[in-house]
């Protein structure tokens, strides 16, 4: 055996987790793409360098529709890293691979028309959390899919907080707050001064121009009820 072979190190495999955005198109695709363009336009840079999973499960489209959709997303600089629910014959060389097995968090309680209250014993359950003790600057992304994110300070325009559960901001929210990313519709968003570019809970988004102006500059909370975003001022 040569000296080079003896000195060659063993290949090491490292595990690492990444949080991806899942896009689930709906028919008609033209209208869905128009809404996607509105979202991207209202929140500049949201899809930049962000991995995306395209979920076409149970979507009645042809292979041609599928390839056209991928091309259209590529034109929008949306990087599809994997496809869920596609016919295996549609995939191949040069196309994103098939993926499956995405994990969803347990929904502890169902949302209601009023700000949701914890169930009996919920306070006793350990919830992972991440504490950020400095302001979040423009261009920064804080991603914590395991639980809550609390920011002791402000979140600047162009910054984002992404949490598997709830988001708590003890300052101004000028950027993006995205809660319940692992499927938790009971997650909430709290902030002391609401000036957000975008908020989202469990995949349901609202941008600045869609939110009632009466909440601007106020201390608020946001939650979901019947697949609709709800907001209320904090006393």
TrEMBL record:
Pfam families: MinC_C. The keyword Cell cycle applies. Keywords: Cell cycle, Cell division, Septation. InterPro entries: CAP/MinC_C, MinC, MinC_C_sf, Septum_form_inhib_MinC_C. Gene3D superfamilies: 2.160.20.70, 3.30.70.260. Residues 132-230 form the Septum formation inhibitor MinC C-terminal domain. Cell division inhibitor that blocks the formation of polar Z ring septums. Rapidly oscillates between the poles of the cell to destabilize FtsZ filaments that have formed before they mature into polar Z rings. Prevents FtsZ polymerization. Belongs to the MinC family. Interacts with MinD and FtsZ. This is Probable septum site-determining protein MinC. The gene is minC.
């Amino acid at each position: 055996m040569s000296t080079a072979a003896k000195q060659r190190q063993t290949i090491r495999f490292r595990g690492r987790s990444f949080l991806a955005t899942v896009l689930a198109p709906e028919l008609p695709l033209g209208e869905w793409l128009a809404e996607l363009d509105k979202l991207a336009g209202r929140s500049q840079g949201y899809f930049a360098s962000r991995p995306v999973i395209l979920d076409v499960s149970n979507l009645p489209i042809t292979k041609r529709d599928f390839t056209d959709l991928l091309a259209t997303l590529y034109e929008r600089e949306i990087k599809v890293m994997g496809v869920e629910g596609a016919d295996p014959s549609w995939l191949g060389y040069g196309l994103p691979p098939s993926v499956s097995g995405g994990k969803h968090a347990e929904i502890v309680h169902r949302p209601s028309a009023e700000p949701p209250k914890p169930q009996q014993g919920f306070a006793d359950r350990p919830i992972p959390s991440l504490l950020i003790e400095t302001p979040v600057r423009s261009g920064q992304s804080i991603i914590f899919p395991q639980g809550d994110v609390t920011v002791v300070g402000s979140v600047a325009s162009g910054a984002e907080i992404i949490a598997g559960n709830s988001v708590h901001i003890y300052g101004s929210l000028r950027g993006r707050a995205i809660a319940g990313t692992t499927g938790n519709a009971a997650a909430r968003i709290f902030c002391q001064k609401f000036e957000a570019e975008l908020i989202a809970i469990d995949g349901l988004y609202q941008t600045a121009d869609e939110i009632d102006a009466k909440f601007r500059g106020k201390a608020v909370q946001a939650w979901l009820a019947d697949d609709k975003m709800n907001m209320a001022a904090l006393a």
